[in-house]
Amino acid sequence: MNRSNNRRPAFVLVCTILALLISCRPDNGCRIDENALKFSAFSPYASITDDDIQYLADTYGLPKSDLDAITISDDASKQTLGNTIKGWQEQRMKLTDPNTQADVSYPMRWNYIMPGMYPVDEMIRDRSMTDESMYKLYGVCWDYAAVFCAIAIKYGLEEGTDIRITAWKKYMSDEMSFDQGPGADYGMSPAEYAALSTKLEANNLYFPDCQMQDAAVETYIHYRPEIYLFGAWVSFDATNPNEEYQNAPYSVVYYDDGANLALCSL
Q: From start to end of 156-254, where are the E strands?
């Protein structure tokens, strides 16, 4: 493993796991309202608007004129679109961790169990930081993939046919001494639950802390966007992954793969 190239994706996930393990699974005394309203789930990256594109251009320097000039007609134009978005992400997105941005993993985690709870159009307005004297959009690998996919779909690529998100379906916790067992670990910190409660209230929803402790699960170790070009799926991962992450086995993930039907409806 070339640690000098980039070990940030793994570092981000380690910190995220530590945060989610603060709390524990609820006991049988957790009172859950079986008739409570559920969130109406939707793809968090499938429907950004012209206003969102303009916001990205005004706030984060998205090269809108370059993107507007691309007409999707063949694989070469799709490749140009992908390279343009990826180049912008490398300059104006920031891969960070909970030590500097406590909420860095929230969209990834919330959208996994309640798809659409933290959509891209909200992410781009909430998750700004100053780095190298520029405003940058911060996040983890899932944010990069979701933002890439949202922009690409807006500019004419079709999800599933032209573009998709894939993941290395491995859990960081499985290699750690505090692992809860095979598969995804579970839990949610008090600070994360407080932040999620604000989102829930904005949607006229309420789920008790104990229910969310049971629902919140660890997400995969790494996500990336891919475009189908010249007969093969090609990665456009702007997180600068090291060789291990580049060559890992990836498979497609759908926006509703982790949807918890006790919390949301599809």
A: 163-168, 222-229, 232-235, 251-253
Query: Which DSSP letter does residue 186 get?
Result: B
Residue 145, φ and ψ in degrees, nearest 5: -65, -45
pLDDT category at 23 given cuts 50, 70, 90 is: very low
Angle between helix axes 141-154 and 106-113 (nearest 10 degrees) is: 70
**d(C-alpha 46, C-alpha 56), whole Å:** 16
Structure confidence by residue, pLDDT tens digits, 166-225:
999 998 877 765 545 556 678 899 999 999 999 999 999 999 999 999 999 999 999 999
pLDDT tens digits, 35-75? 899 999 999 999 899 999 999 999 999 999 999 999 999 99
Residue type at 261?
L
**Helix ranges restricted to H, 187-262:** 190-202, 209-215, 243-247
* DSSP designation for 172: G
Residue 217, number of CB atoms within 10 A of its CB:
18
Distance CA 262, CA 125 (A): 29
Q: Strands across the sheet with 222-229, in order?
A: 232-235, 222-229, 163-168, 251-253
Global model pTM greater than 0.85 = yes
Cβ-proximal residues to 206 (8 Å cutoff; 6+ apart), any chain: 36, 197, 200
